Structure prediction request, 79 residues.
Amino acid sequence: MKKRLFVLFLVAFFWLTGCQSQSVQAQTAPEPIAAMPVVAAQPTKEVVDYCASCHTDKDALISTAKPEEIVEKESTGAG
Prediction:
């Protein structure tokens, strides 16, 4: 009986000391990160947007439109 209690005490002692060393390692301060060099932004070319001119041209819309598909209605009855 005393031998089992002693073994249980040793297991609990090692388990608790193992948890303690992990929490100490987690509390250490992280190393500072080296500063990234700042790169100046270079001016970019202006992008021309043709959306409004294309979508407001009625003839262009009609010529590029997908033809409308005629869908037949499903018939009722025995099938």
Observations:
- The first helix runs from residue 2 to 26.
- The helical segments are 2-26, 51-55, 58-64.
- The mean pLDDT is 75.
- The chain has three helices and no strands.
